[in-house]
């Protein structure tokens, strides 16, 4: 799966080339999460994307659509050649998720709504029978400032959503700077636990650890929150761990080559920090 993660990162860099650019930082921080879900955890079929018994993935942090498209290409829901059409005239690969793309379940982008959508899909799955499929939703830590997230989290617990897993990409930055400088709330894991969710923390770039935690989440009764410590723009040289990586335009081949050259398959993993300590990811 490490090879898949590397390929996804290369696709993301390529998508940032050209006049439109893309949300590099938050896409790169989510790569291992998506690879673990799509290549290990989720029960899906690229030959039948609408299969009724499939697990469902909701990208609540919709600006990370590049990471999802790249993962779908590696998982053969779409072709690798289509990735190069990102944001080009006539392309279905838009800046935020487009439901005409196989594997994209919802058009997201306005933050804070993915968990509510996931409540609906997971509820519908439970009505289908005693062994329901699962719904996985990926949120960002900056997104947790949206009140609708916590309204939905309360509903999830009230509905006893045993087949719902929320994965939170804690890269510690949002568009305007460090998350703790904008809203210095309680530690992320404590907030989810406070709403009655089973909560676990993990290095969001450790594929083996992610797969193990997600396996446990699928078996857990009640909704589960997987809090992933990640690095914004993970693996991209000087851009890693910087708010400036939020949106990047690599408008020349030279820039793209420089970024590709900076990518290391042995980039350091996300560093664990004490609860409540502002991160530097």
Name the descriptors:
37% helix; 281 residues; five-stranded parallel sheet; alpha/beta; two-stranded antiparallel ribbon; Rossmann fold
What does this structure look like?
The chain has 281 residues and is an alpha/beta fold. It has a single domain (2-262), classed as Thiamin diphosphate (ThDP)-binding fold, Pyr/PP domains (Rossmann fold, 3-Layer(aba) Sandwich), CATH 3.40.50.970. It has eleven helices and seven strands. The longest helix is centred in the first third of the chain and has 14 residues, at 2-15. It is globular, with a radius of gyration of 17 Å. The two termini are 23 Å apart.
Q: Outline of this structure?
A:
The chain is α/β, with parallel strands linked by helices and 281 residues long.
What's the helix and strand layout?
Layout: H1 2-15, H2 24-28, H3 31-41, E1 56-59, H4 65-74, H5 80-83, H6 114-127, E2 135-140, H7 147-158, E3 164-170, E4 173-174, E5 177-178, H8 179-182, H9 188-194, E6 198-203, H10 207-219, E7 224-229, H11 253-262
Low-confidence stretches: 266-281
Main sheet makeup: 5 strands, parallel
Structural class: alpha/beta
The fourth-level CATH homologous superfamily is: Thiamin diphosphate (ThDP)-binding fold, Pyr/PP domains
Biggest sheet strand order reads: 1-2-3-7-6
- Please state the CA-atom Rg, rounded to the nearest Å: 17 Å
Tally the helices: what do you get?
11
Annotation, overall tally of beta strands: 7
Summarize the amount of helix as a percent range.
Answer: 25-40%
Tell me, what's the shape? globular
CATH-level-2 architecture: 3-Layer(aba) Sandwich
User: What is the strand content?
Assistant: 5-15%
What do the pLDDT scores average to?
A: 87
Number of discrete domains: 1
Give the terminus-to-terminus CA distance: 23 Å
Q: What is the H-and-E element order? A: HHHEHHHEHEEEHHEHEH
CATH class identity: Alpha Beta
Q: What is the third-level CATH name, the topology? A: Rossmann fold
